[in-house]
Specification:
single chain, 3 domains, alpha/beta, GMP Synthetase, Chain A, domain 3, 25 strands, about 25% strand, Rossmann fold
């Protein structure tokens, strides 16, 4: 027997298939307002879609872009592509046409699958702007492309067989947000996918038989909830879009026990005028990550919702989980702890390194660097960047942090977001954390803008809570009192909303353009 046959790498296909077989008669996916899907329902449809994909040329690592919002079809296609042997190129539903076109060209995509109910115009635009697409498939009847769902209906259920792949075969391409430059293709592989799933199963705090609310995009982080949910005999409840009032209602009515949210979503829930009218007592865990969360707002969440918050920190280059902060480690009386991203999971080596790749002493700022089985092989076709990113044999994350005596890391900011003003280094997150303590402030983003005297001026964009008011000078004085005059904002702008990237992070590049 060959080594490949004895130790097959089948990405997530085999464990998910085995879990669905076990739960063949149990509802495992519910789209809010629609009929639940059992494990058997999902297996049958994945089989049909797998055959339809292969009949339309998807096999042998063909690059397939999927453009759709949250729906059961996204979950089905993620799995069907694995069985068919395709490589999924993730297209964020909130991305721009230029973002999508770049992914198609750079990722050498040949097949586009799209939801005609939401993305007909975008699919038509992409088809006109690129010659790469040899096949366009629609999720339902449409003027453009072949109806993939109708094609799937023509097939009978057949046994699912996952292709055997090398551990580092490219089975997915994810694109960085591009907030600091040109987007980069980050390859996913069986090795990385299996490790990410293993860490989530072993180190995340899941309720018993979880009822999981998925409201973040299934094309990205939301889809990662599916594997752990069904393996733990749970049910995934899916919302097609984020609306804070509707999220509160669904948590109450569907008895949701855990969910994943980005910080801006948590702020929106806390600020909803009807927040206190809903019963959220079924919630045991809120997984949160993707960007830094204000310690002041996190403390508010602990007080109003309870000790349910679990933080994960990672990035697409080392997906989902490099560090965690457990529910019991969220100390509401310790602002530095609430500003932490937790401690490294035991599966990885994590160090804070200086510019010479030497580890910094505890309490000093250094770049978070990672090595281990969760780390990607390297960016696609970016040789020079890979040499820089993996200098010294470590993945350099670009995030700067300090470590306390208990081993908790506190991210002070992105290395490229650091402000140099008058020769001094200012980390925006430290200024943001002070401003966020003011009761009038709902959200804040701090960034640098050009200044003839100082080089860069510390600048803040502020979203106020409903009905609240405060002078910019008062917020600058607050920072000066806590952090000194160097870190006090020279400019304060009040805005209706902080612009967000497609993955829910504050878009500081857009703010620099607007106010620079």
């Amino acid at each position: 027997m060959s080594d490949a046959a004895r130790h097959p790498s089948t990405y997530l296909s085999s464990p998910i298939m085995n879990a669905l077989k076990r739960d063949r008669n149990k509802p495992v996916v519910e789209i809010v307002g629609e009929k639940p899907w059992t494990g058997g329902d999902l297996l049958r449809r994945i089989s049909q879609l797998t055959q339809a994909l292969q009949a339309n040329g998807v096999s042998g690592g063909a690059r397939v872009a999927l453009l759709a919002g949250n729906s059961v079809d996204v979950l089905l296609l993620h799995n069907a592509l694995g069985f068919a042997g395709g490589c999924l190129v993730a297209m964020h539903p909130m991305g721009s046409a230029d973002d999508h076109l770049f992914a198609i060209e750079d990722g050498e995509v040949t097949v586009l699958i799209y939801d005609p109910g939401k993305f007909s115009a975008r699919a038509a635009e992409l088809a006109k702007r690129t010659n790469r697409l040899t096949n366009i498939l629609s999720l339902g009847a449409a003027e453009l492309g072949t109806d993939l769902l109708a094609a799937a209906d023509s097939f009978q259920e057949a046994p699912l067989v996952a292709p055997i792949l090398p551990p580092d075969a490219v089975t997915r391409l994810s694109y960085s947000g591009g907030t600091t430059g040109t987007p980069k293709a980050i390859p996913g592989s069986p090795r990385v996918g299996a490790m990410a799933l293993s860490i989530m199963l072993s180190d995340w705090e899941w309720p018993v038989e979880p009822r999981v609310l998925a409201v973040v995009p299934l094309s990205h982080a939301g889809g990662s909830l599916f594997g752990p949910t069904i393996i733990k005999n749970g049910t995934m409840v899916v919302m097609t879009a984020f609306d804070p009032g509707e999220v509160l209602r669904v948590i109450q009515d569907y008895k949701i026990s855990c969910t994943m949210l980005v910080p801006t979503m948590i702020y929106a829930l806390l600020d909803h005028p009807d927040f206190d009218k809903y019963d959220l007592s079924s919630l045991e865990t809120i997984f949160y990550g993707a960007s830094l969360m204000s310690p002041a707002r996190l403390k508010e969440g602990l007080e109003r919702i309870g000790p349910v918050f679990f933080q994960f920190y990672g990035q697409a280059e080392a997906p989902m989980t490099v560090t965690i902060m457990r529910r019991s480690e969220h100390d509401p009386n310790n602002p530095d702890r609430l500003a932490s991203c937790g401690r490294p999971v035991p599966w990885l080596d994590v160090a804070l390194l200086d510019d010479q790749n030497e580890e910094v002493p505890d309490g000093e700022a250094g770049e978070i660097c990672v090595r281990g089985p969760l780390v990607m092989e390297g960016y696609l076709n970016r040789d020079q960047l890979n040499q820089e990113t993996f200098a010294g044999g470590w993945l350099h994350t670009g995030d700067v942090a300090v470590k306390d005596p208990d081993g908790f890391l506190r991210i002070v900011d992105r290395k490229k977001d650091m402000i140099v003003t008058g020769g001094f280094n200012v980390f925006p997150s430290e200024v943001e954390n002070v401003i966020a303590t003011h009761p009038a402030v709902a959200q804040v983003a701090v960034f640098g803008t050009p200044d003839e005297k100082w080089g860069e001026a510390v600048t803040a964009a502020i979203v106020l809570r409903p009905g609240a008011s405060v002078a910019g000078e008062e917020l600058s004085a607050l920072v000066k009192a806590h952090k000194g005059s160097v870190q006090a904002p020279k400019h304060v702008h009040f805005v209706d909303a902080i612009p967000q990237t497609a993955v829910g992070k504050p878009d500081k590049k857009a703010l620099r353009v607007r106010f620079g």
